[in-house]
Amino acid sequence: MAKVVLVTGVSRYLGGLYARRLSTDPSIERILGVDVVPPKHSIGRAEFVRADIRNPMIGRIMAQAGVDTVVHMNVIATPKDTGGRVTQKEINVIGTMQLLAACQKSESVSRLVVKSSAAVYGSSPRDPAMFTEDMNPKTLPRTGFGKDSVEVEGYVRGFSRRRPDVEITMLRLANVVGPSIHTAITDYFALPLVPVPLGFDARFQFVHEDDATAAMILATTGPPAGIVNVAGDGFLTVTQCTAIARRPVVPVPLQAAGVIGNIVRRSGLADFSSDQLTFLAFGRGLDTSRMRSVLEFEPHFTTRGAFEDYARHLRPAVPGVEGVGEVVSDAAGGTAAALSRVFDRIQP
Amino acid sequence: MTDDPSKAAASPTSETSSVTTTSAAAPTKKKAPKEKAAKNAIAKSDAKSGSKSGAKSGATKKAASKKAVPQPASKQAASASGSAATSSATQAGPSARPARGAFAAGAARASGERRRRSGTPLIPSAPVELSAARRLAAGAGADALADEVVSAVTEGPTEPETRGPATGASPARAARAGRGSPPTEPGDGAGTFEPVVGEAAGAETVEGETVEVLEVADAPETVDPADVLPAEPTPPRRPRPPRSAVRSTRRATPGEPARLRAVPPVEPIPTQAEGQAGDHGTRHTQTAQEGGWERALTSGLQSRAEKLVGAVLEGAEFSSESRPGPTELVELAVNVLRAAASSAGVPAEDVERQVAETLAYLRRRLTGDYVVDEFGFDEDYTVNVHLPLLRPFYKTWFRVEVRGIENIPDEGGALVVGNHSGTIAMDSLMTQVAVYDEHPRHRHLRMLGADLVFQMPFVGAMARRSGTTLAANSDAERLLSSGALVGVWPEGFKGVGKPFSERYKLQRFGRGGFVSAALRAGVPIVPVSIVGAEEIYPILGNMPAVARLLGLPYAPITPTFPLLGPLGMVPLPSKWLIEFGPPIETTSFGPEAADDPMLVFDLTDQVRETIQQTLYSLLMQRKSVFL
User: Is the interface score ipTM higher than 0.90?
Assistant: First the structure.
């Protein structure tokens, strides 16, 4: 059972949320939060340790504190926050390597929990409707976060071979949305004008930030579960999402999507790599039966509920648009009223 | 006329006085002045047409010349005026029938309009209170009163003579009067003559309005500053009865202007509507003036127009009082719809319901308020858009005849396996419609499509929405075990793209994956044979280079396709037969049988043979390809 937990990426939003949640669990004796920058938010009763997981020093920390559970949440999906793709890859891949190397050396570590992503399944027109955990991607993600995730999972698999005594739980989270979290997908739907692939209407699954954290907590304290997909129930299409977020769309041919993606990325509004663009065209479905049967986790938010919660906190695309809308509808109502009376009378 | 310029300066209020004069003249001078007026008009137009100097004198001259125009009508007017005189007697009696207040009001204004058009706008009107459009609208009610109108018209010209001073208005207005040509006249004259007409109107048929007139007649002159207009320095005052008449006509549209202004957004639309109605009215007016017999002919139309305009006016007044809201919008839309439906001879309820459903669908689309399942199937879209789009093909174009629909189970999973043909997968779409429309439970056929389908923009999105998913074992088994009815066409592109010479010859049935999927899920296999699809686009040749270029499995040449361009994409209207065969049970083999390749091949062959034999028998029964 988890007594001393080491959390990486605690200065990131989801890491901080996780640390706060875990702090409320009295069975946990000690929580160590590791990151390169001090957290801006509360991390509960977790002790912040300023360390770089890319540095072998992490092994000494583990040994000193007698860490028995390592929670790896430092696989970064948004290069914008970390200073570019190079740093992102460095943190994701090299960081995971070093962390797992340290874990392998450590005598005390008995459980490893990894926050992975559904991006490992890629996204293509030849995908099955639903991916189960044992399915391989039809097309391997070749760039960005998806590729990092695949490599991270590769290292974890290698680690599990070398340390079969360590229980491993790896959660493949669907896109995390919520009122506060910033990811590529939340930035995307917050654009004042959402470019969508022309002629495609991808299916998405979302998981609420609270559910994502709760699933990670469960993976830390609950029974070992192996690889588990985590997603809210139900599906939303891109069209539905933009409708719920009340954003106008501009259809863009998929061939031009790379250019548009570049423009958007350069402008700093949202961060999209090419595999995320294919994701917008073809979407992805996760089979979550293992989440229920093995992890025994029941998400509180459905896909729609999670997205609506996110959209509620979204500012309108154009400031003051509501006011203008009211004025217009007032005027329209006025003329309509007049017309209706006229027609009332004409009608025999 | 001569002292005209000097007194023209008088004041803007001279209109009111002029009004009084006109109306005063109306009851007293009937016949005689009219003829005089006619003569005068001619004379003036002759005499003064040459010399136009000052703006004011110019205006009067123009007016005079205009007077000349309506002269031909004055003869009728003269004859008609007799009747007017007699009817004025009835007006005096307060016993008038009360029913048609709105009508009378409309008529009053209408005749004002009539007058404006045909009479001389010598006397500029009060700064217009009623919008021109409104007055135009009023014109619609006029027609029945043509006689009186014309008589009034002829009276118009006489006024300036008797009352020179009144004519001279502010120079600008005079100029305007001069500029205006009868049809486009901005309505200055109309206001002036309205009173007279109003009386004439009241005199005629009359009704309710008369009562009002009488009442108001006694009222003190201070009434209605809005009506009479700012300040009455009132140079020359005129007898009272006519003034009251003025008021009475305005009463017909009580407080209109003020109220309309009070609710700005409401204003433009009603006036527009009236303007249109008014156009009708004026058209009738003109025809009515042409000859007496035409009046009789158009009287039916006229009375309808009257009713309409009366209603419009009342409606407009009412609307200006109410506060606008979305309810009104809906009410209006429904009313328009009902009117349109009834005029088209369709039951209004049906149309209403259909439109309501469509609107509800659009609303759901706009708000994203619909459910998409894990395969991307969007039932809302399929039922409301996809199937309705296919139904014309199904019913009218291919006249699909369905047999053995009872072989499809009412519930639970089943695998429908069919023969594929027709260059594009029209047969699967028609089978989808057949299953939904003919089956008593209206089941959705969830089809399995090639990955090429999902690579293509639009096609892929439509396919997913309408329930198609990738032809992979994982998807098929997932669908079947969830109790869905799954359709598969195992020939794939080999079947769809085969040349016309090989029609109705089944190709290899894939690798039998569909059988193993059915075995694993333990669902029956329902063979379906489709006859007719082969003939919709007979493939005569292939263009492999084009196909390679576009990344397609084949690029067909049909008798019409590249030849007629897009027109060649219209399928030939062959007659279709779809027969569902008796289901082949798979439960007895157990799910592990799916791993027995021999059994799978045997079952595959059995299904294939069943379909092939059914195809032959259907082809024998078919009388003609197209009938």
Answer: no
